[in-house]
C-alpha cells in the first residue's frame, strides 16, 4: 500500500533539459525586416543591436538615383554565437522604401516578399522532404517613423495597414536624440492615438502570467507603456563617465545608446532578443502564416469545386452530343 502512496521519481522531469539540449544543438534562426525611408538610421541600429557590421558593402545612392527608385529587398545573413548558442540572423532590408518622388504603393514589393516566403514555406511543408525546411518567413518588422513630424504620415499608415496582417510590426521613433523628452512623450502619445484611430494592428506583447514575480510584471508594464520605442543608434564608441560606450558625440555632450534615460534602445534590444524573440516567431507561425495557409487552402478548394462543376458541365454536354 505504502508503495502506491509514495511519489516515485520516474524521470520525465528531465524533459525540459532534453528539449533544451536538442534546440541548442539545432541552433536558432530569426528573420528581422527593417523598413523606413533611407537615412533614418536603420543600418546603424541593426549594427548596434547585434554588434556586427552587416552593411560592409552597401552602396549609397545619390538624390538623382533615388528619384525614380523602386523598392529593393536585400537580405544579409550572419551566424552569431554566444555561450555556445548559435543564432542564424537574417536582416531583410528594404532600401528605396519612401524615397521616390511618387511613393504610391511603395509597400507592394515588401508585401509580395513576405507572401513569397509564406508560399515557399507552404510548398516545402506540403512536399516530401519536410524535415529540412529552410524557414525564411519574416518574424518581425521594425518600422522607422521619422522624428520630425507630428505623428504618422500617410505613407506610414498605408505601409502598416498593408503589412499588419502578414508580419509583427514594431514601430520605432528613429533618431530620438533629435527630440527633447517632452517632445518624445507627445509624439509617442500621438502615434499611439493614430495607431488606434486607423485600426493598425501592431505587435501586441503577450499578457504576463499571473504567477510571474513582481519585478517581471513591472518590467512587462514598462515595456508595454514605452511603445513606440524611441531609439538612437551609433556605430562609434565614445568615452563617457570614464567608460567606453556606444554613443554619439555632440559639441554639447554625449548621447549614449544604452543609457535608458537617453532612449529606449535597451528596452527594444531586451524585448527583441532576450524576452520576446520566441513569441515573435510563434505569432508569425500561429497567426500570420496560419492566415495565409487558410486562405491558400480555401482558394485551392474553391478551384477544385469550380473545376468539378466544369467537369459536370462538360459531361452533360458530352452526353447531350452523344
Ligand atoms: P539607413 O539609410 O536608414 O540605413 O540610415 P543609416 O544607418 O545609414 O544612417 C544615416 C545617417 O544617420 C548616418 O549619418 C548615421 O550616422 C546617422 N544616424 C544613425 N542613427 C542615428 C541616430 O540615432 N541619431 C542621429 N542623430 N543620427 C543617426
Automatic annotation (TrEMBL):
It comes from the Eukaryota. Gene3D superfamilies: P-loop containing nucleotide triphosphate hydrolases (3.40.50.300). One of its GO terms (molecular function) is GTP binding. The record marks 148 as: Important for dimerization. It is found in: Cytoplasm. Its main location: cytoplasm. It holds the Pfam family Septin. Residues 26-299 form the Septin-type G domain. The keyword Cytoplasm applies. InterPro entries: G_SEPTIN_dom, P-loop_NTPase, Septin. The keyword GTP-binding applies. Keywords: Cell cycle, Cell division, Cytoplasm, GTP-binding, Nucleotide-binding. GO terms for biological process: cell division. One of its GO terms (cellular component) is cytoplasm. PANTHER family: SEPTIN. Belongs to the TRAFAC class TrmE-Era-EngA-EngB-Septin-like GTPase superfamily. Septin GTPase family. This is Septin-type G domain-containing protein. The gene is septin5a.
Amino acid at each position: 500500500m505504502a508503495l502506491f502512496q509514495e511519489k516515485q521519481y520516474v524521470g520525465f522531469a528531465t524533459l525540459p533539459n532534453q528539449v533544451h539540449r536538442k534546440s541548442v544543438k539545432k541552433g536558432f534562426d530569426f528573420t528581422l525586416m527593417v523598413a523606413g525611408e533611407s537615412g533614418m538610421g536603420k543600418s546603424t541600429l541593426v549594427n548596434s543591436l547585434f554588434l556586427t557590421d552587416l552593411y560592409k558593402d552597401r552602396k549609397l545612392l545619390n538624390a538623382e538615383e533615388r528619384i525614380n527608385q523602386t523598392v529593393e529587398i536585400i537580405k544579409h545573413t550572419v551566424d552569431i554565437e554566444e555561450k555556445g548558442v548559435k543564432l542564424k540572423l537574417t536582416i531583410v532590408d528594404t532600401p528605396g522604401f519612401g524615397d521616390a518622388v511618387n511613393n504610391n504603393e511603395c509597400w507592394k514589393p515588401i508585401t509580395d516578399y513576405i507572401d513569397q516566403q509564406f508560399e515557399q514555406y507552404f510548398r516545402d511543408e506540403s512536399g516530401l522532404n519536410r524535415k529540412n525546411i529552410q524557414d525564411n518567413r519574416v518574424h518581425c518588422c521594425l518600422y522607422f517613423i521619422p522624428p520630425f513630424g507630428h505623428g504618422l504620415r500617410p505613407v506610414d499608415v498605408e505601409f502598416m495597414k498593408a503589412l499588419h496582417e502578414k508580419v509583427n510590426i514594431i514601430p520605432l521613433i528613429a533618431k530620438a536624440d533629435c527630440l527633447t523628452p517632452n517632445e518624445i512623450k507627445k509624439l509617442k502619445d500621438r502615434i499611439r492615438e493614430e495607431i488606434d484611430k486607423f485600426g493598425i494592428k501592431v505587435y501586441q506583447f503577450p499578457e504576463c502570467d499571473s504567477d510571474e514575480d513582481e519585478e517581471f510584471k513591472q518590467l512587462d508594464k514598462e515595456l508595454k507603456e514605452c511603445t513606440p520605442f524611441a531609439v538612437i543608434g551609433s556605430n562609434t564608441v565614445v568615452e563617457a563617465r570614464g567608460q567606453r560606450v556606444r554613443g554619439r558625440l555632440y559639441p554639447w555632450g554625449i548621447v549614449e545608446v544604452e543609457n535608458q534615460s537617453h532612449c529606449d534602445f535597451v528596452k527594444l534590444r531586451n524585448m527583441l532578443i532576450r524576452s520576446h524573440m520566441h513569441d515573435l516567431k510563434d505569432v508569425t507561425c500561429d497567426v500570420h502564416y496560419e492566415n495565409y495557409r487558410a486562405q491558400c487552402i480555401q482558394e485551392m478548394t474553391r478551384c477544385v469545386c469550380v473545376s468539378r462543376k466544369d467537369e459536370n458541365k462538360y459531361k452533360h454536354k458530352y452526353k447531350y452530343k452523344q
